[in-house]
Design a protein that fits this description.
11 helices; binds ligand PBG; two-stranded antiparallel sheet; alpha/beta
């Protein structure tokens, strides 16, 4: 085996071309999913204060937005709905004329080939802000399952290509798979937020959708951040129930989880580069404390290097622009 001075690892770092030739990990627009926040009404475009350049959009403004996204080579969007009315059981989540259902139709009419992934959860639609039905102050798992299944079904009936349950109830993937199969929707994949942690990195998202649980927090259903063996069990459970793609969330403080899931399961793996991760980069860049473009590309590269095939990221558009002009 060669050793110094015959071995010189710096040889392959000397020029741009040499570095490119031996690069192990590449970020590609085709691996990115761009989240979109959709609101009711028309002509609405509101910037989210803690997430610069990210907007809440009404359905009539979606066609232009998704044309731009598709032109950048981004294959998919992930939809979150912000309804005007909420109730105890989150009815807006599974209403055929709900905010997400209308957004799906608007997108599919303008750019049919763009994949529409929908976040399946009740929290944006419940008056108490929890991800399921609350019984005696506790989120009831089994009563929530049929509502999640109904939500997923209504998204697919409106034209969604992939459904992505993010609620962390046990058995939701099975409930959704069965509901879809009963309606002969066997071809619709499920992207399961399999290992989703109870994380403070979701802070800006909660501002974006105007929600926080009215009481308590999400720790009785989302995962405890110190656990990684449990993440493998969550992933195993979702795969057993029929998940097609699995996801780890958040990404940056959980790169070890992404790596372990990648090494343990041969399923397509997504990672969610969440709102707080985005907000930190934007805030520091605005102060001139970081080189924004380099930080973002380094971050996305790290998530891929950890083992993710797909990245859900608010940086998708800007990163794709940079990749095009590289
Ligand atoms: C809804 C949901 C959340 C996020 C995605 N789906 C919030 C939460 O669970 O509290 C977070 C996304 C982000 O922070 O970017 N269940």
């Amino acid at each position: 085996m060669a050793v110094f001075p015959r071995l010189r690892l710096r040889r392959l770092r000397r020029t741009d071309s040499l570095r490119a030739l031996v690069r192990e990990t590449k970020v590609d627009s085709g691996d990115l999913i761009y989240p979109l926040f959709v609101v009711e009404g028309s002509g609405v475009k509101q910037e989210i204060a803690s997430m610069p350049d990210i907007f809440r959009l009404s359905a009539d403004l979606l066609p232009r937005e998704v044309e731009e996204i598709a032109k950048l080579g981004i294959p998919a969007v992930l939809l979150f709905g912000i309804p005007e009315d909420k109730d105890e059981v989150g009815s807006g989540a599974y209403h055929s004329q709900g905010v997400v259902q209308q957004a799906i139709r608007a997108i599919k009419q303008s750019v049919p080939e763009l994949l529409v992934v929908t976040d399946v959860c009740l929290c944006e639609y419940t008056s108490h802000g929890h991800c399921g039905v609350v019984v005696d102050g506790y989120v009831d798992n089994d009563q929530t399952l049929p509502l999640l299944a109904r939500t997923a079904l209504s998204h697919v009936e409106a034209g969604a290509d992939i459904v992505a349950p993010s609620d962390m109830m046990d058995g939701r993937v099975k409930a959704i798979r069965e509901a879809l199969d009963e309606e002969r929707l066997q071809h619709i994949p499920i992207l399961a937020y399999a290992a989703k942690y109870a994380s403070a990195f979701y802070g800006p998202f909660r501002e974006a959708v105007g929600l926080a649980p009215q009481f308590g927090d999400r720790r009785s259903y989302q995962m405890d951040p110190p656990n990684v063996r449990e993440a493998l069990r969550e992933v195993e459970q979702d795969i057993t129930e029929g998940a097609d793609i699995i996801m780890v969330k958040p990404a940056l403080a959980y790169l070890d989880v992404i790596r372990q899931v990648r090494d343990t399961f041969n399923y397509p793996l997504a990672a969610y580069n969440v709102s707080g991760e985005y907000a930190m980069v934007k805030a520091a860049a605005r102060q001139g404390w970081l080189d924004e473009k380099q930080i973002i590309m380094e971050t996305l590269t790290a998530i891929k290097r950890a083992g993710a095939d797909i990245i859900v990221t608010y940086h998708a558009k800007e990163a794709s622009r940079w990749l095009q002009t590289k």
